[in-house]
Amino acid sequence: MVRPSSNRPRHVWQHHHRREDLQSGLEPDACFYIEHEADVRDHEEIDLAIHPPPDLVLEVEISRSTAGRLAIYAEMGVPEVWRTDGDVLRMCRLDEEGTYREVRESQALPGLKPDDLRRFLALRTEVDESTLTIQFREWMSGGV
Question: What is the span of the domain harbouring residue 22?
Answer without folding.
Answer: 10-110
